[in-house]
């Protein structure tokens, strides 16, 4: 860890408190000059650090920049050889994760970004990802031997996002099968799970789990075409909760479900929050639109629907409208 990273981690752990230059220097076993240099670099990167004579440095509670240093101390899961890589801006965290895996097939960890210039949804759709208002992250996972079902990963991620939000706030998010999280009738999060083939074995060698959360309302508003769909976790700037905290809790909850994914026990948590069950839905198959009633989530995360003729059918992929 560089000196700058050490100073940032210390300040993040004492957010809103004043820490003297001497305390930082002693605590981190570095010189006062190194502290001063690190503070200046962090300020230049956008961290709001207040310096008061006789009091020292204080990382403002308003500062909410995603960083490895802020996320790692909040993790309750052992990261072992996993890494967290944070970017200010990137085309897409899923694309970046794929590039990293292409370079190093063994890579496991999380890529997070403040902004995506080419945020991706499913089927080539766009996920609007402006700076300062969202959390965009991709978890790079190695599948278990008998586990390459992307729907299981997506549904577990949806549960993890809901659990993280429920733990940190008093909000009650709901799930729209298969990959959307809703709050007060609006989409606040989308999930995109992609697999990378291992050429030698012909199986999925790596899974890239992309999660995008609209944390607060974007300054320049949502684009017209999604204004009636998109919502946010918070309306305005929230100083109680940071995106780093949300990122850490999503990671904590996801990994604790992932270890036990094959048991499917988490699917009950999915069903509880899935608001479409019992409702009339429409879906497309081979360009034809069908109406049906959503009946259940099966043990592979598929959606069971009752067709008008009473026949039951399981949808494993795609989009439903309510
Ligand atoms: C998704 O696709 O919702 C998956 C989104 C995954 C985004 C994450 S961010 C980190 C990682 N890196 C990436 O590049 N992607 C992942 P889908 O179900 O296809 O929904 C896309 C549709 O949602 C669009 O066609 C819009 O209608 C709507 N939409 C776009 N941006 C949105 C936003 N910010 N909030 C809510 N809805 C949005």
From TrEMBL:
An example of a Gene Ontology cellular component annotation for this protein is: cytoplasm
Might you give the EC number(s) for this enzyme?
6.3.4.15
Question: Which residues make up the binding site for biotin?
Answer: 92-94, 116, 120-122, 187
Q: What GO terms in the biological process aspect are recorded for it? A: protein lipoylation; regulation of DNA-templated transcription
BPL/LPL catalytic domain ranges (all copies): 69-262
The molecular function terms in GO held by this entry are: ATP binding; biotin--[biotin carboxyl-carrier protein] ligase activity; DNA binding; transferase activity
| UniProt key word Cytoplasm | no
Domain of life, source organism = Bacteria
The record's DNA-binding region positions are 21-40
Q: Which reaction does it catalyse?
A: biotin + L-lysyl-[protein] + ATP = N(6)-biotinyl-L-lysyl-[protein] + AMP + diphosphate + H(+)
Keywords of this entry: ATP-binding, Biotin, DNA-binding, Ligase, Nucleotide-binding, Repressor, Transcription, Transcription regulation
Read off the HAMAP family from this record: Bifunct_BirA
What's the family? Belongs to the biotin--protein ligase family.
What is this protein's function?
Answer: Acts both as a biotin--[acetyl-CoA-carboxylase] ligase and a repressor.
Q: What is this protein called?
A: Bifunctional ligase/repressor BirA
- Which organism is this protein's natural source? Trichococcus palustris
């Amino acid at each position: 860890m560089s000196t700058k990273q050490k100073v940032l981690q210390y300040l993040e752990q004492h957010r809103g408190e004043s820490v003297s230059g001497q305390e930082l220097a002693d605590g981190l076993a570095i010189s006062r000059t190194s502290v001063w240099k690190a503070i200046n670099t962090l300020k230049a990167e956008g961290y709001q650090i207040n310096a008061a004579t006789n009091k020292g440095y204080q990382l403002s509670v308003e500062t909410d920049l995603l960083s490895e240093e802020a996320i790692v101390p909040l993790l309750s899961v052992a990261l072992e050889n996993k890494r967290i890589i944070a970017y200010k801006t990137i085309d897409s965290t899923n694309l970046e994760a794929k590039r990293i895996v292409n370079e190093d097939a063994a890579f496991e960890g999380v890529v997070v970004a403040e902004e995506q210039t080419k945020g991706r949804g499913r089927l080539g759709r766009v996920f609007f990802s402006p700076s300062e208002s969202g959390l965009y992250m991709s978890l790079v996972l190695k599948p278990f031997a008998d586990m390459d079902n992307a729907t299981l990963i997506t549904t577990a991620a949806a549960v993890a996002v809901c659990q993280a939000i429920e733990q940190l706030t008093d909000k009650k998010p709901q799930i729209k099968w298969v990959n959307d999280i809703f709050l007060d009738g609006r989409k606040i999060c989308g999930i995109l799970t992609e697999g990378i083939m291992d050429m030698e074995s012909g199986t999925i060698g790596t899974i890239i789990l992309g999660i995008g959360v609209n944390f607060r309302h974007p300054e320049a508003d949502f684009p017209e075409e999604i204004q009636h769909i998109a919502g946010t976790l918070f309306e305005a700037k929230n100083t109680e909760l940071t995106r780093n905290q949300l990122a850490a809790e999503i990671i904590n909850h996801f990994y604790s479900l992932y270890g036990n994914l094959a048991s499917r026990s988490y699917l009950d948590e999915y069903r509880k929050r899935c608001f479409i069950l019992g409702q009339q839905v429409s879906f497309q198959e081979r360009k034809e639109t069908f109406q049906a009633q959503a009946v259940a989530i099966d043990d592979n995360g598929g959606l069971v629907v009752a067709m008008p003729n009473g026949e039951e059918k399981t949808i494993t992929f795609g989009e439903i409208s309510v």
